[in-house]
Known about the structure:
The complex is a heterodimer of chains A (320) and B (327).
Chain A lengths: L18 H9 L2 H18 L1 H4 L31 H38 L1 H15 L3 H27 L9 H30 L3 H8 L4 H38 L10 H8 L2 H6 L2 H28 L5
Chain B lengths: L4 H29 L4 H6 L5 H10 L6 H13 L5 E3 L2 E4 H36 L5 H14 L2 H15 L12 E2 L2 E2 L8 H27 L2 H8 L4 H17 L2 H20 L4 H10 L3 H29 L1 H6 L5
Antiparallel strand pairs in B: 1-2, 3-4
Helix pairs in contact in B: 1-13, 5-6, 5-8, 6-8, 7-8, 7-11, 8-10, 8-11, 9-10, 11-12, 11-13, 12-13
Amino acid sequence: MSYVDVTAGMQIGEPIRPRARVWTRLRKRPVAMAAIVVIVIIYGAGIFAPIVAPYGFSEPDFANTHASPSWSHPLGTDALGRDLLSRAIWSAQTTVIISIAAVTTGGLLLGVTLGLIAGYLRGWADAIIMRTAELLGSVPTILLLLIITATLLRRVDSAAEDIEDLTGLDWITSSGAPSYFLIFGALSIFGWVGIARIVRSQVLSLRESQYVIAARASGASTRRIIFWHLLPNVSNLLIVALTLSLGGAAGAEVGLTFLGIGVQAPHPSFGAMIFEGAGLTQVRQHPMLILVPSVAVSSLILAFNLLGDQLTYVLSPRHR
Amino acid sequence: MPAGLASYIARRLIIVPFVLLIVSFVTFALGRYAPGDYVDIQAGPRANQETIDRIRHDRGLDDPVYEQYARYMSNVLQGDLGVSQNPRGVPVEDVLFPRLWVSVQINALALLFTWLIGIPLGTWAALKRGTWMDPFSIGLFLSFASVPVLVSVPLLEWIFIVKLQLLPTGGWSTDHVLGVKLGIFSLKAVLPVFVLTLSGVAGLARYMRSQVIEVLDQDFVRTARAKGLRGDVVVFRHVIRNAMLPIVTIFGFELAGLIGGSIFVESLLGIPGVGQLAFQAVTTRDYDTIMAIVLLGSTIFVLAMLAVDIAYGFIDPRIRSGGGLPT
């Protein structure tokens, strides 16, 4: 470093926009608002499922199977006479729990922390983190997930039963907690790589900027520089990445359920509902079974993707 | 060979065996620690424990994992991938390779269509920037990309097989065309190729669009325009050629997406490919087959990534010194 001009005080790199202006700009974009409305409706239904859902997720009505839409069952019923609207709402709850848990642990905690460390410390920490990321990235995720299903699923289940025997808590298996745990575990193991890469590349350029050099010169600790100076400046990128990964997590749940790493019956999820309705005979005779979960989950993913796109546009200084 | 390229290729090549070793060992260890091996399954619930232990000992299943792993890998290197459990007793390679041919046909065709459609579509959207057609086409791509394959397959079945009755129900044609087993000329191939293409086109077109927009803002494009070149010459000779550079890197990810998509598409449509085999092998805990598929899949993937890296090293001199691709 030949010279450090602290007095200039100008920050190199992308300037940050005040949050309030981002919101006003977002509000003028109909596509962004439509996406937000869809997300709020589906997430809201999921969060308030116990209040909103007209029926429980597993209330069979054998006198009323495969019913057409009616006032008492707005979207009809399935093969066991369970209300499809209620099943969809409870499925939304599953999606909310899994995506929030996976994105918080895998994306935020692991991804951001590892990305900040790799980008700021460089050296061996960077080498270890990025080589691990490369390794995880060099195998098709789906194959490793298949292995995990074939091997670890039963282990986790039996471990949960052991915990129940030891502690006397009998709700662990019946609440479906082991399968929730496995899904979000699988999602976070593979979910941190993308976000860590984004954060790292941004930090790599920020660490040479003058305000970071100034902070270091004035004796700020590494932790303070990372969390106080660097983290706020990668937040714009993070918001976009997290929005997109929430959509990705909703889609991944569908795939994982199909592979058998899903929420176990009778707990509903969009993946389980799609799986139940996907057979050709089912599609032929009862298209509502596949249409309801498909439309719900596709519009949720689309909404997140659109919102991510719009946020990129609003947050990026290039489109000022 | 340009300066620095040889060492760049060497650096890339060194990584490959390490990646494959780690992946295969983790897979192998997970399979061996899993509850219930195939001896358990074949013996059934009434077999006595002594017999089971004896069979295990004979097959070397009570040896330490690393010994079993070394034995397995030396067999693999000699072309012996183990024994399939379903159909029982058949060598894995005899089950795997006919199915691989089916999957290769579908995926190669899907990849071809993805590039033939995605590149022009992305370029077109970028050139129409500022008009209603750009956000409209991007929205359209996004909505295609947002539908999981598991959703689009049943929906398309409902539309094309049940309602319109244009396509035959699933499965795969085993007709011989010019003496080779080729299924892609049958109507049965339309749906799987269409679904895999659709999910790939969106990502590629979006990426191509952003690259073209990036290049359009460059000085040399302005210069080309200013010196009076025709619009289409600028687009084809200057813009597309430069925008295509980073697009090469997406090839590896496309391949990974196809491997994943194949599992769902083949299972749902009843196509006897590797994807369906993977799904069946997992549900029947057929570990030798699972191992073979994971090894094959990661080898193909790692080699494709390597090919992309090397190709990129040839194209872009900045990469050779740096050691990584721009992201």
